[in-house]
Amino acid sequence: MSPEANVSTASRPSSLKITDLRVARLRGTPFHSTLIRIDTDQGISGYGEVRDGGSPTYALMLKSRLLGQNPCDVDRLFRRVKQFGHHARQAGGVCAVEMALMDLAGRAYGVPAYQLAGGRFRDRVLCYCDTPTVDDGREMGRRLRQRMEEGFAFLKMDVGLGVLRGRPDCVIAPPGMLESSAVMHPFTGIQITERGIGLLCEYVAAVRGETGYEVPLAADHFGHLGLESCIRLGRALDQFSLAWYEDMIPWQLADQYQRLSESVETPVCTGEDIYLKEGFADLFGRRAIAVAHPDLASAGGILETKKIGDAAQDAGIAMALHMAMSPVAAMASVQAAAATENFLVLENHSVDDLERWSSLVTGLPVPLIEDGHIAVPETPGLGFEGLDEEVLREFADPGAGEPFGPTGGWDSETSSDRLWS
Ligand SMILES: [Mg+2]
User: Fold this and answer.
1) How far apart are CA 363 and CA 374, in angstroms?
2) How far is the CA of 77 from the centre of ligand 1 (A)?
């Protein structure tokens, strides 16, 4: 067999060149996100996705830095553009480009992206699903049990100030603070009362009454409480053996995370807004969390997320993956999950629209999640063939222009990119 027998006949990887970068704005996947498509001079294209809620500009501004480059040089190009990313949504463009480069390199050489990241540790990826909150604990438990009947073996719910809304004597707050989401937790002055803690315990007890205790059940969205209230609430909820407490406080506060982890007996989790492995270093160094939870579309893409997982593993920390976007980002996440040993579970926010959501990409099973898992594909790149044009139009944001329309205005965007003098 010739060395290039497995290589796309349309492609000579060593001379492949990027010719275009275009975007398609989506809504309902389940939130707003933007697909990017990077085209080449050999007829193959790669896909990526800007983090939900992020601006397409974050990707488009990178186009002039990529035109004429070989997309197979994934790490070299990633290092060229990564200065244009930052935490949370600001990383969306850089991460979308990394996904598309890994997709292209995989398609050019005829291998799955996980193979470019060192090969796989598993052939299917466990998924956990978001489930919208209802105020009644038993009803919430029934909805979670329904998920279990659909095959999900890992669950998440919201437990916090949202459940206590409208109930007297549960929450103490300075004027206006409960309505604001712009003030970081330690500065809100919001506290939870014993009555509030008691009601949340009753809520989780009712949920566990329906789900039983054998299924992992994580908790998120506690509200913008100060650290001391988080510790009191966390200690009270420890009896329910939840899978993790997620984002109880902002990720930047590593010393507070350390105190939280040392004060409760449930795994503490954060990471969905952190950019690059360096962003996790303080949390890992202090052993301040038990579960790292990067979103691949903020963390730096497939290779960087694997590096984050490996660094977490060295510190005795597991890695779960946050994800609330289309099957493009989901499949990029599957690639990283397949290639990272300490991977635990991957999020999905589209379980109630799973068939339609899955149909956005072609060449993979519909529904994409079966028996609570996504099968790791053996097909090249991110694993799907392409996009279904009809389903793409259904998800296209009607106020955002033609999907993948021309972007010539970004061809010569320029600044002096060097970071030293
Ligand atoms: Mg979260």
Assistant:
1) 14
2) 30
Task: State in Å: Cα 247 to ligand 1 middle.
Answer: 6
CB 106, CB 115: distance < 8 Å: yes
Q: Could you tell me the distance, in angstroms and rounded to a whole number, from the CA of residue 413 to the centre of ligand 1?
A: 35
Structural domains of the chain, with CATH: 13-111+387-410 (3.30.390.10), 116-375 (3.20.20.120)
What's the mean pLDDT when you consider all of the chain? Answer: 96
pLDDT tens figures, 263-291: 999 999 999 999 999 999 999 999 999 99
Rounded to the nearest angstrom, the distance between the alpha carbon of 328 and the centre of ligand 1 is 20
Separation of 220 CA from ligand 1 center, angstroms?
6
Closest by alpha carbon to 251, among 261, 263, 265? 261
Which of 414, 368, 421, 405 minimizes the C-alpha distance to 56?
405
Distance (Å) of CA 8 to CA 3, 39, 71, 106: 12, 15, 15, 10
Find the 103 Cα to ligand 1 centroid distance in Å. Answer: 27
222 CA distance to ligand 1 middle (Å): 10
pLDDT (tens digit per residue) in 173-218: 999 999 988 999 999 999 999 999 999 999 999 999 999 999 999 9
Tell me the per-residue pLDDT of 345-362, one tens digit each, with 9 for 90 and over: 999 999 999 999 999 999
pLDDT of residue 1: 45
Between the CA of 237 and the centroid of ligand 1 the distance, in Å, is 18
Q: From ligand 1's centre to the CA of 205, what distance in Å?
A: 22
User: What's the 272 CA to ligand 1 centre distance in angstroms?
Assistant: 7
CB 297 within 8 A of CB 92: yes
* Interatomic CA distance for residues 299 and 88, integer angstroms: 8
